[in-house]
Amino acid sequence: MSTLLISACHGPPACSAVHTYLFVDGLDVVARSDSRMAGVDPKRLLRPGGPLYPTDMPCTVEVAAQERPEPGPDRLTIRVRLRGGTVIWSDLMYPGVDGRPIEEVRFRLEEYVSEVERAYAALPGQPLGQ
After folding, report:
1. Contact (CB, 8 A) for 107 and 83
2. For strand 86-95 and strand 27-28, is the pairing parallel, antiparallel, or unpaired?
3. Would you say 86 and 106 are in contact if contact means Cβ atoms under 8 Å apart?
4. Do residues 23 and 95 touch, judged by C-beta distance below 8 A?
5. What is the DSSP letter of 2?
6. pLDDT class for 129, splitting at 50, 70, 90?
7. Sign of CA dihedral 28, 37, 60, 48
8. Digit-coded pLDDT (tens) for 69-92
């Protein structure tokens, strides 16, 4: 099973826009997938019942968009589904630590949902946020 860590950049003055970081097993999925991309707004991605919350019906989730217009895909998507007590992200394509492509990762449901909720609660303006 993989581990998930979610964090957010709160925009200016640190950078030009608010965006989400998704780390799987310590690797930045967005940056390793396409360095031209930045994670989408965390309030959109992490909201309760939002796109990262798994359901039995698989869904495609936009997790990043291209920061600068350049040739190539302008969106990064993953497929999220729930199978028993496991959350599965598929349709991935980023290099692992050993350089081999990672196409799918699996998380324990309880740990995954706890991390999404923790990251959402940490956003400014949330009842438990800073």
Report:
1. no
2. unpaired
3. yes
4. no
5. -
6. very low
7. positive
8. 655 568 899 999 999 999 999 999
What are the backbone dihedrals phi and psi of residue 117, each rounded to the nearest 5 degrees, phi first?
A: -65, -40
Q: Which amino acid is at 73?
A: P
pLDDT at 35: 85
CA separation for the pair 30, 22 (Å, rounded): 7
Structure tokens of 29? 């999925």
Q: Name all contacts of 18-27 with Cβ < 8 Å and 24+ positions apart.
A: 18/42, 18/43, 19/64, 20/45, 20/46, 20/63, 20/119, 22/63, 24/89, 24/102, 24/105, 25/105, 27/94, 27/96, 27/97, 27/102
Give me the residue label for tokens 């740990």: 111
Q: Which residue has the tokens 């909201």?
A: 47
Label residues 61-81 b or e (16+ Cβ within 10 Å = b): bebbbeeeeeeeeeebebebe
Rounded Cα distance between 68 and 98, Å, is: 29
104-122 burial string, b = 16+ CB within 10 Å, else e?
ebebeeeebeebbeebbeb
DSSP letter for 40, please.
Answer: P
